């Protein structure tokens, strides 16, 4: 959501929240998301490449993987 909205503070809060979750549930986190560093690097990559993500959303709308487009921004 932070990437879609281009909200850096929301992005930073997501990282803080996941660091807290990682500290509490290390083995569970790594089972589903990999190491904390891998997860952070992937998230940073997605946030840094916002247009790529938006293009993928448009592609998924066009090919029917996303059934309806929701207008979140003016």
What's the arrangement of secondary structure elements?
Blueprint: H1 2-5, H2 8-24, H3 26-33, H4 36-48, H5 50-62
Helix pairs in contact: 2-3, 2-4
Fill in the keyword field for this structure:
74 residues; mainly alpha; elongated
Produce a short descriptive summary.
With 74 residues, this protein is an all-alpha fold. It is built from five helices and no strands.
Strand content: under 5%
The outline comes out as elongated
Helical residue percent band: over 70%
Radius of gyration using CA atoms only: 15 Å
* Alpha plus pi helix count: 5
Task: Work out the number of β strands.
Answer: 0
Largest sheet: none
Structural class: mainly alpha
Uncertain runs: none
The SSE order reads HHHHH
- How many domains make up the coordinates? 1
Rounded mean pLDDT score: 83
| Termini separation | 16 Å
Structure description:
- The protein has one domain (2-62).
- It is built from five helices and no strands.
- It has helices at residues 2-5, 8-24, 26-33, 36-48, 50-62.
- Helix 2 (8-24) packs across helix 3 (26-33) and helix 2 (8-24) runs antiparallel to helix 4 (36-48).
- It is elongated and about 40 Å long.
- 0% of the residues are buried.
């Amino acid at each position: 959501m932070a990437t879609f909205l281009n909200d850096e503070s929301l992005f930073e809060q997501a990282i803080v929240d996941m660091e807290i979750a990682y500290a509490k549930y290390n083995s569970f986190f790594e089972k589903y998301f990999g190491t904390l560093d891998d997860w952070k690097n992937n998230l940073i990559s997605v946030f840094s490449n916002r247009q790529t993500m938006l293009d993928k959303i448009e592609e998924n709308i066009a090919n029917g993987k996303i059934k309806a487009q929701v207008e979140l921004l003016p």
